[in-house]
Amino acid sequence: MAVPVPFLVLCSCVLGLYRVEATPDALSSLDASFCHGGLEVVYPQLDVDECLVIPKDLREKMSTVWNAPNVYFPGAQTNQMYVLVMVDPDAPSRAQPTAAYWRHWLVVDVQGYALKEGQIRGTTLTNYQRPTPPRTSGFHRYQFMLFEQHADAPMSLTEQEKSSTAKWDLWAFVTRFDLGEPVATVQFLTQNYKA
User: Fold this and answer.
1) Which of 17, 85, 117, 169 is deepest in the core (most CB within 10 A)?
2) Quick one: how far is CA 122 from the chain centroid?
3) Residue of 13, 129, 146, 119 whose CA lies nearest to 63
4) What pLDDT, on a 0 to 100 scale, did the predictor assign at position 170?
5) 48-92, pLDDT tens digit by residue?
6) Cα separations (Å) of 146 from 71, 112, 119?
7) Who's near 134: CB < 8 A, 6+ residues apart?
8) What are the tens digits of pLDDT across the range 146-163?
9) CA 89, 133, 130: angle at the middle one, nearest 5?
10) Which residues lie closer than 8 Å to 175 by C-beta, 6 or more apart?
11) How far is 50 from 122, CA to CA, in rounded Å?
12) pLDDT at residue 41 greater than cutoff 50
């Protein structure tokens, strides 16, 4: 017996948790291929465990209401420390990313055991900034990357990096602390909720 689509949509609204599946119609193959490793970012009504486009009716909450999400990484090693990065590579727009990478969140010394429980226990170098793309700038990607951190490497931002979250050279930071490739990544696309 087939279940009507409106009924399924109604059920998801009643439950209050959207789980959006990435489809070829929603994301380019490049955007869809970014996500790997099992990183999960959980907002109050939205579970981002794969690359996706934020539903229009949740964009305002994401930009104005919701605070930092819970971050789960079931593959975390209990005694390993990690670095969590959230950036917007499309600032101020995807067509002209002259302020990329915009650093939205940076936490170092993140404890592996806490990541397994969806908690961020570490040292915040950049406080969480909600996704707030400019009104006419189109869709922006918000990327979460998790790196393994060397135990003997105290991490910090340079004075220049502290002065602005715009135009952050993410890969210079990764190279400076020998972080290598991210062990897990996830991203979502959203645009200004008034667009």
Assistant:
1) 85
2) 17
3) 129
4) 97
5) 999 999 999 999 999 999 999 999 999 999 999 999 999 999 999
6) 10, 11, 14
7) 92, 93, 192
8) 999 998 889 999 999 999
9) 90
10) none
11) 24
12) yes
What percentage of the chain exceeds 70 in pLDDT?
87
d(CA 66, CA 63): 7
Cross-strand pairs, 111? 81
Burial of residue 45 (CB within 10 Å: 0-12, 13-18, 19+) is middle
In angstroms, what CA-CA distances link 114 with 109, 110, 117? Answer: 11, 8, 5
User: CA end-to-end span of the chain, whole Å?
Assistant: 39
- Bridge partner list, 108: 123
pTM of the model: 0.85
Which residue in the block uniquely carries the two structure tokens 């400019």?
134
Dist. CA 88–CA 101, nearest whole Å: 6
Q: Which two tokens stand for residue 25?
A: 């119609």
Q: Write the pLDDT tens digit of every residue in 106-130.
A: 999 999 999 999 999 999 999 999 9
